[in-house]
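User: quick one, fold this
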Amino acid sequence: GYLALWTTAYGAFIYVILFAIVFAETGLVVTPFLPGDSLLFAVGSLTAIAGGLDLATSIVVLWAAAVLGDNLNYSVGRYVGQKFFKDGKSRFLNPVHLARTEAFFARHGGRTLVMARFAPILRTYAPFVAGLSRMEYPRFLGFSIFGGLVWIASFTFAGHYFGNIPSVKTNFHYVILAILVLSAMPAIIEIVKARQDRKQGA
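Assistant:
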């Protein structure tokens, strides 16, 4: 795929590109659409081939990107988050995504920062909501570091060990699609629960 071509074209600079992508997805609340899970799996698959990426370096670089991105997002939420809103609305943030993340956060507390790592959009909004709700920074940092490591390592190792199996390589696009669907399941489950709660409340 494109990532393999980039690795050949850019050499070691590919780590900078990967860092930037993961940092943007986790650190910029306006870019929740970036391909986190599938990217990590693809990176892992490239660490298992000769001349590809180094597994340890990839994990350390991407883990640092995830934690630093979280910290930027948390800081924005904590110190300037309220300025995003005017009359209770924001032109920069998707109100539906924000509401879902706040509901998830209210239900699961600090564990949201770990669980949301595996859910696109939620992982982008969760640090912002943590900052907006003024969660204690040491507690936030602990969840961020742990959650970031589990997220990065699990998908990267999965790609490393399974990404180059012939049947997986042949159906790589379907594998990536399956990863995206599975990653979205926590958010889907939370939406269903929220709707059930509203019906029961009504």
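User: anything notable?
Assistant: The mean pLDDT is 77.
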